[in-house]
Write a structure and sequence with these properties.
With about 450 residues, this protein is α+β, with helices and mostly antiparallel strands. Helices cover about 40% and strands about 15% of the residues. It has three domains: about 40-185, NADH Oxidase; about 210-345, no CATH class; about 355-450, Nonspecific Lipid-transfer Protein, Chain A (2-Layer Sandwich). Strands 11-10-9-12-13 form a five-stranded mixed β-sheet. β9 (about 375-380) and β10 (about 385-395) form a beta hairpin.
Length: about 450
């Protein structure tokens, strides 16, 4: 049935009490100048009063945020400026070998910043300014997993002058050091004065974070292994949880489940689900000596700092979760033989060939590639038609779109079949026999390629 829109009823709403009060307020209030800006000094005072420990402001068109702009506008299309703020973390809590104390500290600061962001948005709304506070920590847009799930707070904080990225890929505040958490509020109004980035990096390049990392994810040469970090630190979050679910699904009975997952691990997972997650390691943050508030203890007696801050974490007997055959596994065996290794999956499975290609640098195990120098041409057909070139040389990986240079190995594969191999739903040998995957060139080099990814 066609609905007829009654213009008469619409006109009658002008007599509604709410509309009448609005019109009265509008008539009695002088209109604000178009394009008015928020005062940075007052806005900063507001943020600090609501619980932030430091704050900075960035315009949406800052060149440093060019690669983040689309994500920001996707969340709040009216964004004109961003308010970045940090909350200080209590150092001794984070340094405790007891992961419950360290994790609880992180959760407390995260909650404080969430409350500050919520209160700030409410205060701005009362002033007629539209603002949103994206979810801090892990957001709810999990339909995008394993892709990007939220706005990246770190580059915003760097642009806002709240710190620089350290060797450990964490924000280092000039005063509080690595002992901060970050939050961001997006607003639809410009600010009259924006913050400038720091002119120096507080990171001391001391390599202590690298020495403390149980998985070897932080290379002393600046290379960071994302997969090794996330597999251990976030064992009970994100993909680690889905890996646990598969252990449950694959177990025939309780006895088989217990052979896969210890009682302590089951209870730990219950604890994380019930009382917020327990991070298996934030040692890189805990041992960092950078920042004006932190550095005195380090400079006063470096040997004592190592003995009292770093070694308790290095010497802790604990389980380190690693991907089978990964650089992390080799690192634990070599550097921390007193720690227990447990081979696990991390639940990260590319949902498309495009995602697989994009994720290769993240999953690359560079030490496993030692001595390998080869160029691979990939041609995917079927539901995804994509060509890519992968060059592995000098323990580095380079991924390019299309076919570049001369290939040592050519791989032609049906896209769906390749993903099924990655998801371990079929074997690559079987698919090569049935010619759904075809290899031209050295099979030895092709095998070496696979060994570069755990």
């Amino acid at each position: 049935m066609k609905t007829v829109f009654d213009q008469t009823k619409l006109a009658d709403t002008n007599d509604h009490p709410s509309i009448k009060r609005y019109n009265e307020r509008k008539a009695s209030t002088a209109p604000q100048a178009t394009g008015s800006k928020l005062n940075a000094v007052h806005l900063r005072e507001m943020c600090l009063a609501l619980g932030a420990d430091d704050v900075g402001f960035v315009e949406i068109d800052r060149p440093a945020l060019a690669d983040q702009k689309a994500d920001i506008l996707n969340v709040f299309p009216w964004t004109k400026a961003l308010i970045s703020f940090v909350g200080r973390i209590n150092r001794e809590n984070l340094r405790s070998p007891a992961r419950s104390i360290a994790s609880h500290e992180l959760h407390q600061v995260e909650e404080r910043l969430n409350h500050a962001a919520h209160a700030l948005v409410a205060a701005l709304e009362r002033k007629g300014i539209r603002a949103v506070a994206p979810a801090a920590g892990f957001p709810m847009e999990m339909d995008q997993w394993p892709g990007k799930l939220q706005i990246s707070y770190k580059p915003i904080a760097v642009a806002a002058g709240l710190g620089k990225m350290g060797l450990h890929r964490l924000l280092i505040h000039p005063v509080f050091g690595s002992f901060v958490q970050i939050n961001t509020v997006l607003i639809d109004t410009e600010v009259d004065e924006y913050s400038s980035p720091l002119t120096y990096n507080p990171c001391l390049d001391c390599k202590i974070c690298s020495a403390a990392c149980p998985t070897g994810a932080i290379g002393t040469d600046g290379v960071f292994n994302f997969m090794n970090c996330i597999t251990h630190t976030y064992r009970e979050l994100l993909g680690g949880f889905s890996d646990w679910v598969e252990n449950v699904a694959d177990s025939k009975n309780g006895a088989e489940y217990r052979s896969r997952v210890s009682d302590a691990e089951t209870v730990s997972l219950w604890q994380s689900m019930t009382y917020k997650p327990c991070y298996k390691s934030v040692y890189c943050m805990a041992v960092c000596p950078a920042g004006d508030e932190v550095i005195p203890q380090y400079l006063a007696d470096k040997s004592k700092f190592i003995e009292t801050v770093v070694k308790p974490l290095q010497q802790k007997t604990e389980t380190v979760y690693v991907l089978p055959g990964s650089d992390a596994e080799s690192h634990v065996l070599r550097r921390f033989p007193h720690k227990k290794i447990k081979r696990v999956g991390n639940g990260i499975r590319p949902a498309s060939i495009a995602a697989f290609i994009a994720s290769m640098p993240l999953g690359f195990q560079r030490h496993k590639s030692e001595g390998l120098c080869a160029t691979y041409h990939f041609t995917f057909t079927g539901n995804e038609s994509i060509e890519a070139t992968v060059v592995i040389k000098d323990k580095t990986i380079q991924v390019n779109q299309g076919h570049v240079g001369v290939a040592d190995v050519q791989v032609n594969a049906d896209a769906k079949t390749w993903l099924r191999v990655l998801h371990k739903e079929t074997s690559i040998l079987k698919e090569i026999i049935f010619r759904r995957i075809r290899i031209k060139g050295s099979m030895k080099l092709f095998k070496a390629f696979g060994e570069c990814f755990a």
